[in-house]
Amino acid sequence: MIRNVTSAVACLVFLSACSPGLPRGVSGSNLEAALDDGVGDPNTCVLIGQAGSGKLVYRYGTHVICGQAWPSCQGADLTTADAQLPQVARSRSSATLSCPTKPDGSRSVGWATGPVAGHDDLVFVAVMEGTTAPPGMIVAEHISKALQMAGF
Which domains does the chain have, with CATH numbers? Predict the structure, then answer.
């Protein structure tokens, strides 16, 4: 039993050492604080991943929020931040989109995606949904400021 636990711990340490991390000089706690100040909302998800591969580097928001399907604002399709990350990682294209999530317009979603400024190897996907969710263009501005404050 102890040998199994020791093996499992060693495996986890090995795997975590292989996973991508934040750039040197950027701490997860500073990034979280900057995002809390800039976009902090229970219905917010910000994912940072490696360009090309889409491997997750950082997640702000719960797995539930990041996995929640919202309108893509490009037709009738629904999508999630988790599903968007690999696509943005491959294309490295920027987008800011907004649209209602309720037929009466009482709730909306704002999407912002693109490369992380100054880091050609990183991309981000951000989504905010709610009664006061800003448009995608404003989400992108808030994310950009938060990343700068965090040391990117």
Answer: 21-150 (3.30.450)
pTM of the model: 0.84
Give the C-alpha separation, 72 to 78, whole Å.
Answer: 5
Could you write out the DSSP letters of every residue in 19-41? S--PPTT--HHHHHHHHHHHH--
| Strands of the chain, DSSP E | 44-50, 56-60, 70-71, 78-79, 95-100, 108-116, 119-130
- Phi and psi at 136, nearest 5°, equal -55, -35
Scanning the structure block, which residue is given the tokens 């994912």? 47
Q: What is the pLDDT of residues 60-98, one digit of tens each?
A: 999 999 999 999 999 889 999 999 999 999 999 999 999
Could you tell me which residues come within 8 angstroms of residue 115 by beta carbon, excluding any fewer than 6 positions away?
A: 51, 92, 94, 122, 123, 124
